[in-house]
Design a protein that fits this description.
0% strand; mainly alpha; 2 domains
Length: 483
């Protein structure tokens, strides 16, 4: 790393002072596009610090692009440029305001009241399994938006996980494993609209002749990775309940680490009477606001961003109207809640910046290109594996799908491979990385809501993700052979 920095500084010195450029070699990126990705992933596991891993990846990618294009500081500039992207900026602000949302419903006694209502008064949730099933059902039910699914199921279930002594890592696993998989599996949402646009492009180009939505629906049974992921969560909930097995979810010193890194959870105290409605009403406002705005605008990013702002305003009015707090205290709750999630929001910002740099490097296209020219029987499996590697490396399912559809669909047509199976393999590969990559926004958000370290979540979730991937691989192999 020191050598790389020295070389970079030497090149930068030459450029800034306009000395001879003979020593500066313009590189063909090709295989170099993988270097920042490998560096970030290796550091994430070795250093156990996603911030350092992402920042190192950004610097490495920036150096390569600087040398290639003859510019300066592309890597570091990419961080502030994240806020020039509409979707990224809204997602980052959404996470900050979700921190505020969690804080205010805890401060109002809503979380405390909800736990009492579900356990002591109504006895709706009576056990570890019940707490986990609540998170599971909510995750599946909220298929409209993966981000909303993680937030709502996580916030609603977290106090019950604590009440029944179920590890936070397990909560992160359940919310993560039901959000992205179900959002891509059920196409009547933003992911479905995205797929329609991508498949529609292939129709417009004359490569395939089919109604895009019909094609997407026909590919649903072949989204093997997502299907296996959702099913395995149910198996884990019922089979992984023994105390001895349960301990594997909690990594050493997790509780201490949580209190240091994620201080959003406040102790309920004062004259406020704990009431479940102080949590249920804001949650209802959040769901209703997000989905209503998504329906009105047709914009998923606007839905989650504006929806949470509306929710915070209405929740404040609701609390003040009850006489729980005054305006000044509520504003302090909001600010403190946002401050508690600032660290994770910084990681999310770096994640978006790194993803943009990886796109500029052409990492996804390079991986797809070097994987061409195989036996038609192995095409579905190859597409899944390539997509899984791409999505894990880039941390994005949408980006992976966007790169692979224009490459894989024409290849499938030329080799007479089933298009629905091919599309299912593309989506499955994309969901794998979005589900378990340490640099994925879904992984980071799931960790944030569960209040555990990202790498703890990745390590405890990985065995189940790899099991789903192995089963999906076998499935695509069989489909390729018989298709």
């Amino acid at each position: 790393m020191v050598v790389i920095i020295k070389v970079y500084l030497r090149w930068l010195f030459i450029k800034l002072y306009k000395k001879s450029n003979d020593e500066v070699m313009i590189l063909e990126i090709s295989w170099l596009s993988i270097v920042p990705v490998l560096l970030a992933i290796i550091l994430a596991f070795v250093a156990k610090n996603v911030f350092i891993a992402l920042l190192s990846g950004i610097i490495a990618a920036g150096i390569i692009l600087d040398v290639k294009t003859g510019t300066t500081f592309i890597g570091l500039n990419s961080i502030y440029q994240v806020f020039q992207d509409d979707w990224a900026a809204k997602s980052i602000l959404f996470c900050l305001m979700i921190g505020a949302f969690v804080h205010v419903i805890e401060g109002s006694g809503g979380v405390h009241g909800m736990v009492e209502y579900l356990t002591e008064k109504r006895k709706v949730v009576r056990s570890k399994i019940g707490a986990q099933l609540l998170a599971y059902v909510l995750g599946i039910f909220l298929f409209i938006d993966a981000t909303s699914s993680i937030v709502i199921s996580g916030v609603a279930s977290r106090p019950l996980f604590d009440r029944f002594d179920v590890s936070r890592e397990k909560l992160a696993y359940i919310t993560d494993s039901t959000s992205s998989p179900i959002a891509w599996l059920i196409p009547f949402n933003a992911a479905g609209a995205f797929l329609m646009a991508m498949v529609g492009g292939q129709v417009s180009a004359g490569i395939i002749e089919v109604d895009p939505m019909t094609m997407i629906i026909s590919a649903m049974p072949f989204q093997l990775y997502g299907i296996f992921s959702i099913l395995i969560v149910a198996v884990v909930i019922f089979m992984d309940n023994h105390r001895k097995i349960e301990r594997q979810w909690s990594t050493e010193n997790t509780v201490a680490e949580q209190s240091e890194t994620y201080p959003s959870q406040q102790v309920f105290e004062g004259d406020i009477v704990p009431k479940a409605k102080n949590m249920l009403v804001p949650l209802g406002l959040l769901v209703g606001s997000i989905f209503s705005i998504m329906y009105i605008t047709g914009d998923g990013s606007a839905g989650i961003y504006i929806g949470v702002i509306v929710t915070l305003i209405l929740t404040g009015i609701y609390y003040i109207g009850q006489g729980i707090i005054n305006t000044e205290i509520y504003f302090k709750w909001v600010v403190n809640g946002m401050a508690n999630y600032l660290g994770v929001t910084m990681i999310l910002t770096l994640s978006f910046a790194f993803s943009n740099l990886v796109s500029q490097l052409g990492t996804g296209s390079f991986i797809a290109t070097i994987s061409s020219g195989v036996n038609p029987a192995f095409v579905p499996l190859m597409i899944f594996i390539v997509g899984a590697f791409m999505s894990f490396a880039t941390g994005t399912s949408g980006g992976t799908v966007a790169v692979l559809i224009p490459i894989a669909i024409p290849m499938a047509v030329a080799l007479d491979v089933s298009i629905p199976i091919t599309l299912g393999a593309i989506i499955s590969g994309g969901v794998f990385g979005d589900h378990c990559s340490p640099i994925s926004d879904s992984t980071i958000l799931s960790s944030m809501i569960a209040e555990v370290h990202v790498m703890n979540h990745v390590k405890t979730q990985m065995p189940y993700a790899l099991t789903s991937a192995a089963l999906a691989s076998v499935g695509f192999m069989v489909l390729g052979l018989i298709g």
